[in-house]
Write a structure and sequence with these properties.
Pdz3 Domain, four-stranded antiparallel beta sheet
Length: 446
């Protein structure tokens, strides 16, 4: 998860730009970055470089949107850097310094005078963000998410008209899976109970299993308990007992939760949409996936979602012992090769895990379209330090100017918003750290 910030509220307003690094320190920092890229490539393959490039392009184009809009509005832009942390290289062109920093985790653009706390020389005040007209301020602050929306739209169009997608839709609705076993994972409760490929599960603890969704829900409520299981094989009914819970797959050592079977997944044909018809369809799909993203974030930040997220972190810290009702069963399918994603955020680590295990260009395109849509949704949250917070301030200031019939500018006192901003930053930091920890301790792809 990445949030952009052009000049953090409360930061010392008179901080000078970083001193230019010496040639030796620049070479050392560059060597460290190259070394990390080599290690990343050695561990995940060349596909990791493609994923890193896609991530950086998405974030950099977001900042480029702010930069272009600010420049066209006549605002003073003093810095545009790729990366964070120690400086590797920089050059000045006119009034703006461009450069690279050591940590390739994004980009940033510094627009002078983003709020009333920043002290600016009197001869530069007229060109600050805060003195620009309302339309220019709003256009500048929303230009970043506009770039991400355009990226997502282009990727969706490529999928629809070029690559083709299952069922002709991005993220198609999951088909109803029958309760026929397609695979039994070695080391799982199902393997211990003697289940085999082709068996049809009839009843679990007295509950009729009509489809795989029913099996998943029933299993979730019986973690750690030994219950009767009725299944059909070659036209004959068989009865056994099974204990749903955590297990380790013998083939690859990955962790699983539930009974350890996958279902026969009816393959949906890949369809390409006519290039002309794909244009309006792309907008429809962008809206649909955006709505799904908003709903997903809403579920995560609901009381139940946060409780479940906390349980996942606690379970992971206890070594992955999920043999309790907190354990969320997973059901890998032939279509994706990955389990149903639990209610949690995807960190940069998770992005690499899923991306490097992708078996098709379609999955990579879906991944990056989803990333850009998430950047749009998250950055539109109407709180600082998100772009939505700056937009909300601009709109509020405009309303106050109209209501009070002011001829000059009305400024929100950002100092009053700092306590809430610090809370938001703290929550972001906790989510950032915990999501990385979860993706390392309990990968979604396992």
């Amino acid at each position: 998860m990445t949030a952009t910030d052009h000049h953090p509220p409360g930061a010392p307003p008179d901080v000078e730009p970083d001193a230019a690094p010496s040639a030796s320190s620049s070479w050392l920092r560059a060597a460290v970055v190259v070394g990390l890229v080599v290690v990343l490539t050695a561990k995940f393959g060349l596909l990791a470089l493609l994923i890193l490039a896609g991530l950086l392009v998405s974030i950099t184009l977001h900042e480029l949107g702010h930069y272009i809009a600010a420049k066209r509005s006549g605002m003073l832009v003093t810095e545009f850097f790729l990366g964070f942390g120690p400086r590797i290289w920089s050059t000045r062109r006119g009034e703006t310094e461009y450069g690279l920093k050591a940590i390739p985790a994004g980009a940033y653009v510094r627009i002078v005078g983003m709020h009333n706390l920043e002290e600016v020389p009197s001869d530069e005040e007229a060109r600050t963000y805060r003195q620009a007209t309302f339309p220019r301020r709003l256009a500048t602050i929303l230009a970043g998410v506009t770039m991400n929306a355009i990226i997502a739209l282009v990727l969706i169009y490529v999928m629809l008209a070029g690559v083709g997608v299952a069922g002709g839709r991005i993220l198609p609705d999951a088909p109803k899976l029958h309760s026929v076993v397609d695979e039994v994972f070695g080391g799982s409760p199902a393997a211990a109970a003697g289940l085999q490929k082709g068996d049809r599960i009839i009843r679990l603890d007295g509950v009729a299993v009509r489809d795989f969704d029913t099996l998943r829900r029933t299993t979730q409520t019986r973690m750690g308990h030994t219950v009767p299981l009725i299944y059909s094989r070659d036209g004959h009914l068989h009865t056994t007992t099974i204990t749903p819970g955590s297990y380790t797959v013998t083939d690859d050592g990955s962790k699983g939760c539930g009974i350890g079977v996958s279902a026969v997944d009816p393959e949906q044909p890949t369809e390409r949409v006519n290039p002309v018809a794909a244009v309006p369809r792309s907008f429809v799909e962008l809206g649909r996936v955006t709505g799904m993203t908003v709903q997903g974030l809403g579920r995560l930040f609901s009381p139940k979602g946060l409780t479940d997220y906390g349980h996942q972190v606690i379970d992971a810290s206890e070594g992955g012992d999920h043999a309790t009702p907190k354990c969320v069963p997973v059901a890998p399918t032939k279509a994706t090769g990955t389990p149903a994603a639990p209610n949690r955020l995807l960190s940069v680590v998770g992005l690499f895990q899923i991306g490097t295990s992708a078996k098709s260009a379609e999955l990579l395109l879906v991944l990056f379209a989803g990333l850009n849509i998430t950047l749009v949704v998250v950055n539109l949250i109407p709180l600082l330090p998100f772009d939505g917070g700056h937009a909300a301030i601009a709109i509020y200031e405009r309303i106050q100017e109209r209501r009070r019939r002011l001829k000059g500018r009305y400024f929100v006192d950002v100092a009053k918003l700092l306590p809430l901003t610090y809370v938001v930053v703290a929550v972001l930091f906790l989510l950032f750290v915990s999501s990385i920890y979860l993706d390392i301790a309990s990968p979604i792809t396992q």
